[in-house]
């Protein structure tokens, strides 16, 4: 009761009336009446204030509303205990065998019951009629998944003994990794925060497939497990509003709130669960809190004044953690710290008080939450489940303690205590010797485990890929791009639009194309897609757009094909990953194209791109307005000089920097052939520019070179001196112009090469060098770069619109003088011409670099280089762009 209440009797009458309404007519009626009262108050000018974003520190689902538990709690307890032990034994055995391979004892210990209730009663496996639910398991709890799969017979004892020892192919990956365990893991979730945002867009993609009439996805659910500490990652909450706005009731987050992160409390001075509840409620989610186990029910029932709830609301997370670790005696004095509260627990011993547990370890409470979540409509649901980190490991060393994350050992006494606590049927010696426990196939536990999974479908986690090769258009389908633009100027981004138009009209692939943009469709000149295939919206277009009268108006439609995500590259990447892995998750291949400012790809969302590689994604990333000088006037934050260099580090990313439309057409057609027809687990990063110039027709027989990364564009006229000029993307036209300058001003011949992919050339060179090193008795192989340059005299000069380190990737495979030019340093706002002069990659600097290379070879005197510098107006005193 408020201390400023001047009429407590009247207040109590109103409260009694509300209680009577709930009792006689139900909660929904009470909620309706409260809403009407608020509306009436507002009409009369009474400021009622916003509804609270967090509720009391208690379970959301009342005891009387809990459904009956459908399973055998005794058998499930035995199964869970076996899984808990085998997970522990796996870590301990690996540590003893391999020393520093590590592992996590505490994370799975806190989440085990949350997994087991789901796997026994909710998580649908793949059947003939459906690919099943999509589960984003918490990355740091992989041991538990392996321990269960061992009981299921899917993993061997030998594999468990080789946990985190994968090099010889006999072990298990430390974390969920679809590349290393392609038949087991679906999603790579250990990079904190990425699982949550991917889960949101995965749930949305299921709705997208359904609304477009491509696939029946009703009945499938996305479950995302994570820790409360993980919620501090920006990506963890980045998709919450989308999930609520699009009413993704096929999505459930389960946040394992053990109140701890790696070094200490998540919110020692606050209450993380209350904070998260406010965030999710504010975003429009359905929130279910599972805080206290069934032992607390009697105490809450005895508390007629709300004193216990009030006290729990007051207790900070740091206090709750201390009370748990110090046990019943401390709990009695600290939490039950008034006469009224002490009377509630007067009949409980200190030992019984210490057994009051948290809700995440009570299968009855967890089942009630999961059941409510799957039945809830029109909102995504988050379950905030309070647990104990290191649950069951013993409070003397790990359980509930700040050091829990680093706990990698259990002494003999702790193992014996564990044995008794979880009622394992093995001997103490089995535990002390870290022996795995697996009952016989006909044991009640194993039969029950199999029966429950049979009801729900196949085992989980599991990754199944059904071969579904699809025909792709022949290169001739892109003939208009191959023929060039004659006398019209055109950017490669415009060419991309034409390629997309061809693909969208293809009878087989058209419906599977997923164009994805982060609010930049008009920027890239591709707004024709608005009318052609529409922008996806689950509700269609409820308003009249102001540009309705225009031919290419902003057109939202329920079965739209374009995913126009707004300003969120992370959201776009998550949508792209959902589409790029659909061949596996939905057994329905899709072809996503995510087109974005190239600067906002590998630099901003590199972790998601790496995750896509881990998950064997297939699709196209288009880095538009690519390069550091192709985009005029935008400056530092939009000018990309590093994406291609970053892409070189992702093993299954094939990155290209085409200068001409025909190069782009060849690369995309080849990518489709590799990914869709031949089903290779790789994805393509392709740059696109907004600089317009005449697009030439494709020369003969260059397709192979385009794909391998290098081909001869033009051969120079014969002269006394010859150089090899290489360029790509935005700078290739400058290279061509430099060749003309060299011939006109100095009578030097230049062969011009288009380097469509320095990345591919680098990988080829590395592979060739490795093969030669490991077969020293054989004739050394020759890299593709060396093959191309054979018979072409003179030093090699490479200029790109990227940092010089990118061009340096092929230096080891060029056995002659090699000079590189790149755009090192911070970006600038200016014209293309000024930017290229500033970064020293324009035609004049390329020509000077060629002369300098000839001077290094002793072919021409230094004075000739100096003359060129003066002739082209280059200032030798100009500051180095790397340093300004």
- Beta-strand percentage range: 5-15%
Q: Please list the strands of the largest sheet in the order they lie side by side.
A: 10-7-11-12-14-13
Proportion of residues in helical segments: 40-55%
- Summarize the biggest pleated sheet: 6 strands, parallel
Number of strands: 20
The low-pLDDT segments are none
How would you classify the helix and strand content by structural class? alpha/beta
Rounded to the nearest angstrom, the radius of gyration is 32 Å
Mean pLDDT: 92
- Global outline: elongated
Q: Can you count the helices?
A: 36
Distance between the termini: 65 Å
Task: Describe the overall structure.
This protein has 884 residues and is an alpha/beta fold. Helices cover 42% and strands 10% of the residues. The chain has 36 helices and 20 strands. The strands form five sheets. A six-stranded parallel β-sheet has the order 10-7-11-12-14-13, sandwiched between helices. α7 packs across α24 and α35 (843-856) packs antiparallel against α36. The longest helix has 26 residues, at 73-98.
Fill in the keyword field for this structure.
alpha/beta, 6-stranded parallel β-sheet, 5-stranded parallel β-sheet
SSE arrangement:
Layout: H1 8-25, H2 27-43, H3 73-98, H4 106-121, E1 134-136, H5 142-151, H6 157-161, H7 194-211, E2 222-227, H8 234-237, H9 240-245, E3 251-257, H10 272-283, E4 286-290, H11 297-302, H12 307-314, H13 317-326, H14 328-334, H15 339-344, H16 350-354, H17 363-375, E5 381-386, H18 412-421, H19 428-432, H20 444-456, H21 479-482, E6 489-490, H22 492-505, E7 513-517, H23 528-532, E8 535-536, E9 556-557, E10 563-564, H24 569-580, H25 582-585, E11 591-597, H26 602-614, E12 620-624, H27 643-647, E13 653-656, H28 661-677, E14 683-687, E15 693-694, H29 703-708, E16 711-714, E17 721-727, H30 732-746, E18 748-754, H31 758-774, H32 784-789, E19 796-799, H33 804-807, E20 818-821, H34 832-839, H35 843-856, H36 862-871
Parallel strand pairs: 1-2, 2-3, 3-5, 4-5, 7-10, 7-11, 8-9, 11-12, 12-14, 13-14, 17-18, 17-19, 19-20
Antiparallel strand pairs: 6-15, 16-18
Helix pairs in contact: 1-2, 3-4, 3-5, 3-20, 4-17, 7-24, 24-26, 30-35, 35-36
